[in-house]
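Hey L., structure's done. Input below.
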Amino acid sequence: MKSTKSTTPRSRTRTFLALPALLILITLLLTPVCSAPGTPGAGVPGAAQPVIYVIPVTEMITAGTEIAIARGIDHATEIEAVAVLIEIDTPGGLVTSMEGIVADIERSEVPVITFVPQGRRAFSAGAFILLSGHIAAMAPGTATGAATPIAITPTGTTATENKTINAYAARIRGIAENRNRSTEVAERFVTVGLSLTADEALNQNVIDIIATDRADLIESVDGMTVNVSGRSVTLGTKGAVFEMQEPMLAESIVNILSNPQIAFVLFLLGIYGIIYGIKAPGTYVPEMIGAIAMILALYGMGLFSVSTFGVLLILAGMILFIAEVLTPTFGILTVGGIICLVLGAIMFPQEPFMPPEWIGDFKRTVAVVAILSAVIIVAGLGFVLKTRMTKPTTGKEELIGTVVVAETDIDPVEGGTVRVHGEIWRVSSAESVSAGETVVILDVDGLTLVVARNDESLGTGST
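Output:
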């Protein structure tokens, strides 16, 4: 006698092993790694040549940039470098990271030279960093300034409210005053978005030197005396060698996660994973991916200023998408969800010094993500719910409720037989049933079907 095999739950061993492994990997990536000591070269006692430790700053200022500069200044102190050279090429970035970098430079025990090499720029947050150096230098043809705080709106960007502008104007004045530079010109970087070329910056006492390259720079600064943490230090850079700082994995990871665009996408992935995990439990894969993405997003969001109202709008958009699946409104809730998601995403980062090109890329990302979110949540989650409501077609669950014809008389003691999908099954019943009558399957007990006489009170299924 044949029988239909019941389905069994899939083994979840791999999932349980993968989850802690992934969490350990993330922890290792996000934990700052101690750098191997650089080659001391001439910077250590007894060496013949002085060392200038070079820290490159490229693209957007992020939390990873702050970590790299702090590490570089500490390492330069350890190897007794004569100076730290920060080469700047940035359109702006995160204000909290910029403030941290300026504070690290102000606390440095080693003279810090900030320099904008040829073909580069130091705008917005980069202007604050340039002015904070003990010696500020620019190459011919470069530019700095344009540090007006901005607010991102659905229609574009606009200057922030006056109290924010005044606060950062006072901050840059303080930086310029500390380095004996023009406070009036520095303030105009913030209040009117002033930008200056290298020649203009030198003439208006914003920088100290114009140098074509590193060699020209160290020749120009040799013998200069600067105030470093309350003590006078005379630079002896003649014949100095340059030691470049190499990037670290941890800094690269933090660079990525502290980008508001990446954090926004990870935040949505986390929400998707949790929603799908709740609606389609069993494999733990959506919940695992969602939890990891949410942890990374929250870590990244902790590195820059986030609008609480923007986050609430994003969550409201997700709720409207789910409501569309549960109570179809022919697209009305979907449109509302897209509007909430777009507005929330645009308000998501509250960073006043983000580069204009980044803002353009961010808005394009928001538009694409909003459309994909509607498709993923409404279509994808709708498919999941439809699948869950579909009657099983295999196993024990598929047999229960099926109406079949008794092949033989069914006795409460001896039982009988029925034909199900062309197979003969032994059955048991609490009542007598004559051959040819229909019965409904109530349960499966091993290889025996438990049946009852088919009548309207039992809620018959199909034959």
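Residues 197 and 405 are 93 Å apart (CA to CA). The longest helix spans residues 356-389.

-- N.
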